[in-house]
Amino acid sequence: MAIVTGAARGLGFGIARRLSADGARVVLADVDPSVRSAAETLGGEASGAVCDVADSAAVDRLVAETVAHHGRLDLMVANAGIGGGAPLAETSDEAFRRVIAVNLEGVFFSVRAAARAMIPRRSGVIVTVGSIFGHDTPVRSGAYGASKAGVVALTHALARELGPSGIRVNCVSPGQMATELHWAALRRRAEAEGLSFESVRDRARAAVPLGRHGEPEDVAALVSFLASPDASYITGQTINVDGGFQPR
């Protein structure tokens, strides 16, 4: 039984689709009500739930209702996130706080609720979704980079804390992905530099050794592996999915 947050589209939907194909029962959660129709396209036992991960009470209800209906929670994929980029001097308090609220607090609320359901069973898997820009943040992306760096630190701490309870915690850090979130970031960069979107997109792609933007399926394949018994001795890791853009 799995929950994937931020699953109405993009990486989250790709992850949910892969887990469903693997045979998992999946709850797709998103602040966008279209998540319900997205879940319907997967068929099977997939379902959609409207949830703002920045609201801790809403996240607690999401997990409680999932456990009440399905009897257990085996996997939490804390994927929900937003972009946002601006020069420091132009970043408002509200804009900074919103990025932190969704990208970092939302992950914290999600994994906390999941852990509360998993600890009594002494079993479970948590996968957080960070970003390579949490390790090496470009200009005009301070809030986003800070939020994703926080996700990495949180993941490592929780792996140590929850390991004795039989719960594995890992972080997947995507690189430049073919998703609307990334395209929006490139549009902002193009506008700031006075360039066309196409030229900035092509420049970004050329910087990737494998010569392409990543697809949601690339990230979903890793999440599927980390959730499986084949990864039973892997915890506390941050794994880049970036085509070699940021080798570590």
UniProtKB/TrEMBL annotation:
GO terms for biological process: fatty acid biosynthetic process. It comes from the Bacteria. Its EC number is 1.1.1.100. Coiled coil: none annotated. The keyword Lipoprotein does not apply. It is an enzyme of class 1 (oxidoreductase). Keywords: Oxidoreductase. GO terms for molecular function: 3-oxoacyl-[acyl-carrier-protein] reductase (NADPH) activity; quinone binding. Pfam families: adh_short_C2 (PF13561). NCBIfam families: PRK07231.1 (NF005559). Belongs to the short-chain dehydrogenases/reductases (SDR) family. This is 3-oxoacyl-[acyl-carrier protein] reductase. It comes from uncultured Thermomicrobiales bacterium.
